[in-house]
Every structure is written in C-alpha cells, then in structure tokens.
Amino acid sequence: MDKTKSCVLVVDMINDFVTGKFGDSNAVESVKLAEIALKQLKGNIPIIFAKDSHIKNDPEFKVWGEHAIDGTWGSEIVDALKPFPDYILKKRHYDAFFDTDLDSLLRASGIANIYIFGISTDICVEHTCAAAFYRYYNVKVISDLCACIDNSHQISALTNIKINYGYTHINSEELLKEVI
Fold this sequence. Notes:
This protein is an alpha/beta fold. It has helices at 15-18, 25-41, 61-64, 102-108, 121-134, 154-165, 172-179; strands at 6-11, 47-52, 87-91, 113-118, 138-142, 168-170. It has a 6-stranded parallel sheet, sandwiched between helices. α3 links the parallel β2 and β3. GO terms for molecular function: hydrolase activity. Pfam families: Isochorismatase.
C-alpha cells in the first residue's frame, strides 16, 4: 500500500476495553505492542483513534450493559497510547464510520489505505472493516494489535474479515516494514 495515501486507524483502545469492564490480559498485551509500534509510526503516517463514547441510555446498553459513557474514564484512550493520535473521533456504534466524520477526514486527507487494529476484533474492528469495504478503502488488519472481548473469537474474526472483504492481516513488524 502506498504510505503517502495511508493511515493507521486505532479502534477502541480505551479503558473499559483494556483494563475496565471488558478488559483482560490479551487487551493489555495488545496495548503494549501498539505503544511500541505507534512510537515508531508517529510522524510517518497519520494516526487516527476512534473511541466508543456512548450517551446515557444508549440502545447498545441492552446488549452490553453500560460502558464507555462519553466523558468518563471508561471512554478515554488508555494512558499508554494518549501521546499518539493525530485525530480522535468519538463513535457511538460498532462501525467507526457510521455517524462520525471518519470518511470525510480520510477523503479530505487523500487516504485510500487503512491499517486498522483495536478492540474488539470481532465487533468494532470487523464492523469498521465492513464499512471501509463499502466505501472502497484498501485495508490491512494488524492482527497482533487486536484483541477480542471473548478471545475465542479472534481467529474467526480475522478469517471473516479476510473471507468477506478480502482484507489481509499482517503483524506489527510487517506494518513497520511497510510504513517506515
């Protein structure tokens, strides 16, 4: 992918999904690896964070219970990754494109290629990949920087993304080789 037309999109690496309500050791490990990669990527490629920021009584709470309420600790980017975003977008749905300025931001910036990772691979990352597919973006998923709320879904989520959208997954070392 042409790095001059590329960005990194980090999805929901927020407190509730790393150490809070849905957090676990796999999410913590993904953040550690993401911090290493983002330190090297900063200044070489635009880095966009999309973060769950729900309103009170959000319909999603019927499925998952209250989480990531806008303005709370749970919806904030984890401390280790706060230095890296060039842009931060709030989202209220699984898909980081729906009801956000993500598509406008990418098009205004001449972005055609997205390197995506985050939490949860099988929910927000997968739905964002679907939305990117329908908007004709080229995507690579950075598999070792992803985690699932239920880690038994990780392999099937990556497989679904590849089968349904033709998107490949690479690891963070491959990402760095492609971008730097």
